[in-house]
Backbone:
């Protein structure tokens, strides 16, 4: 009796604004709130709201026989609460039917397993707490970001107490075996590995509205027929896809909602077929064989590897740099810093820097809020430079005596900044924080001491300073003359001038900030 | 085929492009190239290169067919305006020159400066002789490069009925801006309306031909230029400071003022960098004065006109190349910078940004973004590497053979 197991991924990142060099040191709020709100509203109206409504109807209609699973990232849930509470309510309504299960994943939709296992576990725990809070469920099945998987991840997940993990059914590991059975990583004892049937999943997720596809248009009857043909040759069919498939990737006009509304009836028309959630299939079906994944795999692109996130040097540098901040972030002992930092670990930031398709000139394959992968990298790296500055400021203040009692320092609160919606408000916040800090008695003393010590040094070198100032002035004057005389030189001589200029002009002594 | 610039007499990208295309096209078709002035040193294999300066006029005199020629030559609806290339004196003057050229006997063709003050006269003389010359030659396609050769193109099409292909390397729109509706603009528009096919050197220029000149899209076939491989020159760096370069004519079209404004902005925040403005043109003095006024004269270097070798020396030491052109049909120099492994910043209003994906692009007026890009390239070596690597991949696809093949396809459409 084969079971159809639907799992839908729901995720929205915090997109960064076009954070340029001149913002560094001035603007500590990195999110593009306007864009994030717009995207959330768009996807909510096109996908989440109508699809959740339909799912609820289908569940009621089939009286418990239609069962589905979701994995919703923490950053998506946060943004539901912030921008579209109605979406969150509709998911809560689904959770109350008893036919909907929620999976575990990393709160920030991050690649943390690869870079920092401790952070990975922290994020999984944080996500569990959130799922418990909203949906009153304790997940027993785990889904890693972008279905990234190998034996090592499976082992870690088993040790964390999970019953099952979902991943891509990669051909090169399956070696002609069917994804429609339960497998196990060779180094695991009881953790069940659920493999995505990518052919059938992608028929809905990618090919559904493609007019060049030979099976287009795809009807629910036809698709159910393909599933039914598996009877006797498989125990479960895992249909894993982005939830945004419904209404957002495949538009309503493609007929995707009609397809979805008829699909359960069509599938259940075969008496041997039923629907189960991820933990239910894991409970019911036994492990049939080993699935031995040494290298990391994912559900992305045709390569099913990590090249979309870690394929070029910009991506690798950016991700290594943000993870390298961890110790400093923890040293501030501030939740808000930890949150700001962790939001920058979201995999989407690195995906936007992908040049795989860009280099082919295939711009259409490139989904990003930015003009190019290079822009994505520039904004991200600028943000990191600012964050490094904020961290050093916070740590400096922390080292000061009685720092903890210093309320002025606390008011330099970037969390306070992150909730502020309006940029003007931000500026005021920063201004207030800075004034407060300056007026604080401790700080005053520190500044005073510094000034005194500088004054001491200056007085000893007074004569030297004076003369050197003069020199600088005269140098500037001669530069001015040179520039002025330049415009009078006949163009015939100009070819030689560049070399001459380089020699005569002194290299700048001032270092970059 | 009719060209105006051809090595060694070149002014900009036109001559280089004509030579590149001829070299690649010559083995594929029976090619005759007519230019004002030829030099045996620049002969191309399999191609007949005809410099009008060396054509014996007495042999042409007998083959008179004046009536076709008159049809276009006597157009005098052209409005006149100033162009950066040429100083026109007035409508009456042009009519006078036209009258003189058409009524006078054929004279031996002589030309000193390609873009001298007598360019209109030269263009008309070139046209007159070319038409006569064509009567002595066998051909199936007429292919004319830029407005200087559009007149003979039209005349010969009328006389022979052979299809006319116009190759557009640059438009009056690019050189003089959208307000300009000069004699040259009128000539371009008229010629493009009359032509059977138009080959602009980029989609960008194609869209201007369609939207500004109002030509039907169905006969516009953009073909990007190729480029010749280079030998890198090696030059020792004189300073440890980073060098940002601009090279080209210092004219409105190339956007040097925007480059200067971006330089000023960068220097306010990031002093360890030098800017070079290489080339010459009518805007140079003004920019030098502005640099002095902003007290960045010691960081902002103007070089005046540079020879090819000097440009290569500059490319060898440059860290960032900026091309902020207001309107750039192709932008050969951007591709040259890529050949030297220099990360590039190009305006979106350029053809080069269509073939180079490993580049940073902004609108020519977006000084803030330009400044940010310059700093980013100086600050982030990884970004430089990724851009250069991607641009090298792009570069492999840019060659004259594939350009010639695409031109051949356009011919096929017309002949078959």
Residues:
């Amino acid at each position: 009796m084969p079971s159809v197991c639907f799992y839908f991924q729901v995720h929205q990142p915090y997109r960064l604004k076009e954070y340029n060099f001149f913002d560094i040191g001035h603007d500590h709020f990195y999110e593009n709130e306007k864009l994030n709100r717009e995207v959330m509203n768009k996807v909510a109206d096109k996908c989440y709201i109508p699809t959740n409504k339909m799912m609820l109807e289908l569940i009621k209609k089939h009286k418990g026989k239609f069962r589905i699973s979701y994995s919703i990232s923490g950053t998506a849930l946060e943004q539901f609460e912030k921008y579209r509470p109605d979406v969150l309510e509709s998911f809560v309504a689904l959770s109350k039917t008893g036919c909907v299960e929620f999976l575990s994943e990393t709160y920030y939709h991050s690649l943390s397993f690869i870079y920092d296992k401790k952070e990975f576990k922290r994020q999984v725990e944080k996500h569990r707490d959130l799922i418990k809070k909203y949906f009153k469920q304790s997940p027993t099945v785990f889904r890693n970001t972008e279905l990234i998987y190998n034996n090592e991840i499976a082992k870690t997940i088993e040790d964390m107490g999970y019953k099952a993990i979902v991943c891509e059914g990669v051909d090169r590991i399956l070696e002609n075996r069917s994804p429609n059975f339960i497998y196990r990583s060779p180094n695991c004892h009881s953790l069940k590995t659920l493999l995505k049937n990518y052919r059938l999943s992608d028929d809905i997720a990618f090919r559904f509205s493609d007019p060049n596809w030979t099976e287009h248009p795809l009807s629910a009857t036809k698709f159910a027929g393909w599933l039914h043909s598996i009877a006797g040759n498989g125990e479960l069919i895992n249909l894993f896809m982005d939830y945004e498939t419904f209404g957002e990737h495949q538009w309503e006009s493609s007929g995707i909602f009609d397809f979805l509304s008829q699909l359960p009836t069509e599938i259940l028309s075969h008496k041997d077929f039923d629907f189960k959630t991820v933990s239910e299939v894991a409970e019911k079906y036994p492990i049939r064989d080993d699935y031995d994944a040494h290298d990391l795999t994912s559900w992305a692109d045709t390569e099913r590897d990590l090249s979309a996130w870690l394929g070029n040097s910009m991506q690798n540098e950016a991700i290594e740099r943000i993870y390298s901040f961890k110790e400093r972030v923890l040293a501030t002992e501030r939740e808000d810093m930890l949150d700001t930092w962790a939001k920058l670990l979201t995999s989407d930031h690195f995906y936007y820097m992908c040049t795989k398709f860009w280099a082919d000139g295939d711009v259409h394959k490139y989904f990003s809020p930015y003009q190019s992968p290079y822009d994505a990298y520039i904004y991200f790296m600028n943000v990191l430079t600012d964050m490094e500055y904020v961290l050093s400021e916070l740590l400096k203040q922390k080292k000061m005596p009685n720092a903890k009692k210093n309320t002025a320092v606390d008011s330099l609160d970037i969390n306070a900044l992150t909730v502020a919606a309006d940029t003007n408000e931000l500026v005021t916040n920063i201004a207030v924080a800075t004034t407060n800090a300056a007026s604080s008695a401790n700080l005053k003393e520190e500044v005073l001491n510094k000034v005194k010590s500088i004054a001491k040094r200056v007085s000893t070198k007074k004569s030297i300073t004076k003369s050197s100032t003069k020199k600088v002035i005269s140098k500037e004057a001669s530069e001015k003359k040179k520039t002025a005389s330049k415009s009078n030189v006949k163009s015939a001589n100009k070819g030689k001038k560049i070399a001459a200029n380089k020699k005569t002009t002194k290299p700048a002594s001032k270092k970059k900030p | 085929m009719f060209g105006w610039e051809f090595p060694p007499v070149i002014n900009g990208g036109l001559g280089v492009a004509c030579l590149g295309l001829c070299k690649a096209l010559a083995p594929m078709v029976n090619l005759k190239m007519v230019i004002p002035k030829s030099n045996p040193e620049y002969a191309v294999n399999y191609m007949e290169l005809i410099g009008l300066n060396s054509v014996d006029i007495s042999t042409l005199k007998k083959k008179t067919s004046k009536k076709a020629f008159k049809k276009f030559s006597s157009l005098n609806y052209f409005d006149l305006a100033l162009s950066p290339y040429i100083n026109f004196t007035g409508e009456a003057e042009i009519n006078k020159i036209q009258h003189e050229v058409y009524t006078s006997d054929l004279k031996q063709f002589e030309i000193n400066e390609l873009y001298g003050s007598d360019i209109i006269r030269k263009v008309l003389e070139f046209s007159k002789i070319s038409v006569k010359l064509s009567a002595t030659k066998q051909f199936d396609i007429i292919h004319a490069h830029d407005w200087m050769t559009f007149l003979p193109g039209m005349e010969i099409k009328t006389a022979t009925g052979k299809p006319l292909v116009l190759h557009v390397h640059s438009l009056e729109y690019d050189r003089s801006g959208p307000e300009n509706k000069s004699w040259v603009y009128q000539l371009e528009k008229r010629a493009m309306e009359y032509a059977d096919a138009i080959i602009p050197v980029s989609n960008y220029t194609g869209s201007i031909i369609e939207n500004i000149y109002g030509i039907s899209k169905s006969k516009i076939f953009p073909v990007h230029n190729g480029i010749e491989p280079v030998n890198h020159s090696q030059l020792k760096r004189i300073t440890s400071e980073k060098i940002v370069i601009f090279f080209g004519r210092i004219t409105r079209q190339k956007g040097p003022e925007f480059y200067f404004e971006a330089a000023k902005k960068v220097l306010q925040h990031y002093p360890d960098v030098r800017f070079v403005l290489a080339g010459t043109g009518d805007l140079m003095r003004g920019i030098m004065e502005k640099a002095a006024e902003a007290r960045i004269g010691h960081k902002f270097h103007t070089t005046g006109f540079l020879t090819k070798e000097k440009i290569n020396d500059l490319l060898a030491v440059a860290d960032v190349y900026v091309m902020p052109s207001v309107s750039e049909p192709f932008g050969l120099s951007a591709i040259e910078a890529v050949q030297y492994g220099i990360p590039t910043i190009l305006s979106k209003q350029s053809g080069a940004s269509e073939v180079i994906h490993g580049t940073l692009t902004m609108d020519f007026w977006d000084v803030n973004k330009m400044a940010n890009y310059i700093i980013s390239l100086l600050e982030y070596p990884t970004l430089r590497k990724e851009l250069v690597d991607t641009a090298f991949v792009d570069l492999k696809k840019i060659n004259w053979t594939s350009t010639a093949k695409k031109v051949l396809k356009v011919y096929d459409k017309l002949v078959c």
